[in-house]
Amino acid sequence: MARIETTILRNLIEDEDYARKVVPYLKSEYFFVDGERAIFDEVINFYRLYNKKPSISAILIELGQSKKLSESSAKTAEKLLDEFKTLDAVPDETWLLSKTETFCKDKSIFIAMLKSIDIAEGKTKFDKGIIPELL
C-alpha cells in the first residue's frame, strides 16, 4: 500500500514543477522513517546544488557515499527507490498538492505536540510559556 510520504518523495524526483511548489514547505523532520528521510535530504541537497531534479541513480550514489547513514537506513532507502520504478503513474497534481499541504500541516502539528510534551515534562530547558507559540 502506498503511503503519502512515498508518493511525495517519488514526485519530488519525477515532477520538477511539483517539487518547486512544495520544497519550501517540506522539512526533513516530517519523514519519520530513516530511509525516507535520507532520500528527502538527498533530493533537497541535489536541488540546492544543481537547481534541478535528481535521478534515482544520483540519489543511490549519494546515499552509498554517505557516512552518516546506517546500513539499515541505506537498505530501506534503496528498497524505496526500487519501488518508485513500479508505482502507478504520477497522480493528479491538484490532488497531490492538496495531500502534500495536509501532510505538512499534520506533521507540523504532531512535532509541535511532541515538543510541547517534552517542555511540559521538563525534558527541555524551554519555558512552558512557549507551548502556545509552538502549537
Explain what the structure shows.
This protein is mainly α and about 140 residues long. It is built from 7 helices and no strands. Helix 1 crosses helix 6 (about 95-120), helix 3 (about 35-50) crosses helix 5 and helix 4 (about 55-65) runs antiparallel to helix 5 (about 70-85). It is globular. The two termini are about 30 Å apart.
Task: Briefly characterize the structure.
Helices cover 67% and strands 0% of the residues.
Keywords:
mainly alpha, 67% helix, globular
List the SSEs and their pairings.
Layout: H1 4-14, H2 16-22, H3 34-50, H4 56-65, H5 71-84, H6 93-120, H7 131-134
Class inferred from helices and paired strands? mainly alpha
How would a crystallographer describe the biggest sheet?
Answer: none
Separation of the first and last Cα atoms = 31 Å
Estimate percent helicity.
Answer: 55-70%
The ordered string of helix (H) and strand (E) elements is HHHHHHH
Number of helices: 7
Q: Strand percentage, roughly?
A: under 5%
Radius of gyration: 16 Å
pLDDT < 50 stretches: none
Mean pLDDT: 88
Give the total of beta strands.
Answer: 0
Specify the overall morphology.
Answer: globular
